[in-house]
Design brief:
Largest sheet of chain A: none
Number of helices of chain B: 5
Strand content of chain A: under 5%
Helix content of chain A: over 70%
Oligomer: heterodimer
Order of helices and strands of chain A: HHHHHHHHHHHHHHHHHHH
Number of domains of chain B: 2
Helix content of chain B: 55-70%
Structural class of chain A: mainly alpha
Chain lengths: 462, 132
Amino acid sequence: MNAIILSAIAGVVMMFSGIFSKNKHALTNTAIAGLLILLIGNILDTYHVYTITVNTHDMLHFDKFGASFNSIAIGATLLYVLLSGRDIEKVGVNVAEYYALVFFALCGISLLSSFNSLLILFLGVEIMSIPLYILTGADKKNLKGNEASLKYFLMGAFSTGIMLMGIALLYGATGNFEINPSQSLINVPLTHGILGPLGLLFIFISLSFKVSAAPFHFWTPDVYDGAPSVFTSFMATIIKSAGFIAFIRLFSSRSEDLEVSWQVILPLVIVATLLIGNITAVFQQSVKRMLAYSSIAQAGFMLFALYGSNDLAREGIILYATAYSLATIGIFAILIRMKDYTFDGYNGLAKKQPLLAFVNTVFLLSLAGIPLTAGFFAKYYMLASAIKEGGHSALWLVIVALLFAAVSVYYYFRVIQAMYFKDGEAEMSETNKGFRILLVIIACIIILIGIYPSLLLDRLYF
Amino acid sequence: MNGLSLFLDVNESAAVDYFPIAVQLIFAVGFVVTMIAVSAWAGPKRKTSDKLETFTSGIATHGDARQPMAVKYFLVAILFVLFDVEVIFFYPYAVNFRALGWDGFYAVLMFVAFFLAGFIYIIKKGALDWEG
């Protein structure tokens, strides 16, 4: 509850501080303070120290899983603002509003991690997405950004319509909006009639759009490429993981209602996502665009959590969200400072900035899933959950995923190759000491989780 | 009724109840199509250049509608919609004022407070300064 209320208030406070202060650094510091308060409030919530209690009429359900994810999302946002705050200040004049929108998106995320009613799912998705439509077009003078913003808005509006249709059909099938109906209500099983499965399919389509899974991914490269790089970083990491949390909360509680047909649809979507994301990423010339396609490919891996939807999957998605968010935020923080976004722009970075090249390598290795980094265990948990759920019938899916993970190594290593083994003048804007120290800390966290994943996963239970 | 259900090929008797609606739909569409067709076929045709122009209540047309408009018009329109919708929310509250009790009152108070914050924000931002 704390996270929802505090993030909404922090957003309003940010809006007003923009009126009273024109000092951009001060605004960034206000946002950092707000995020810290939000993080503390959420941790208090996790350990049942309630400061605010509201009767939610069973529309929200708070548990360790959701609260842990909130902490990760807020913590990742904090790191993101600490790293890229200076770049957010450079996007335009309305700095306070950018931060306010980030807070509002966090409010949507905390709704998504605790919803128990389809209405709250809808509200959460909307509160999370609408700030993004604006942030995508934050750079008003950039024609590409405007195009991306409009595209994102129109397609997002359509996907929302599909979700509403799905919710209406589910309501028709069950007679209530709750995903875990309380005992007093007569629980009509979903398998009766076509309405329930069809409704779930519609919601599945809409959420697949939000997390850019394969047949609904077409907006991703354009939007990620057109948006200001700082906001692409936010969209590709924190928002995407939040979409998956909503996905898992919905589908794990409905899993017994999911009929055999889901065992056909879900693998198809996973394979298509992995195929399109990885193969297209290979042909990219711009690192930013490559990261957009790689985020589609990573979404393919995260979809395994849906296929598994058991305890391993829930642990895995927390691990994956952390590993993926941290690594991608780090890569983007370095990318934003580069003069040239193409692979050639990274040529010879290792000679000029050995430290930055090294941490960038750690992040890329983690994304590729090389052992001793967090990305390895993230992928491991995902595949293990699929095997645990599906047994031998899931084996082909796991093999396909491993093949595509091998493909992904190619394009991630192209950046490393450019940094270390190619001669060139990688040009980069100035970086201060704090920026470098933070990147090293993030790299350390990634390696630490890669060695002891239980450090993070124990938080789910204790 | 038996003949009707055979004609429509429906199993449930409830579906037969929709038959009058179907008849009305067919009649409505048929009437419109027929009237337009008949008037186009039977009516006199005297085409003059004035008649072929866009109808603008007798005022001479000038230019086309696709001109750039100042953003401030849209801004005011959007803000109007916002505050209009706020008032709409008061109606159901007013109807249930007694039943909702103090809890409802606090909820509405919070709603108004958020709205007021938004109102102060747009005033301070100068969104309503027409000349600015």
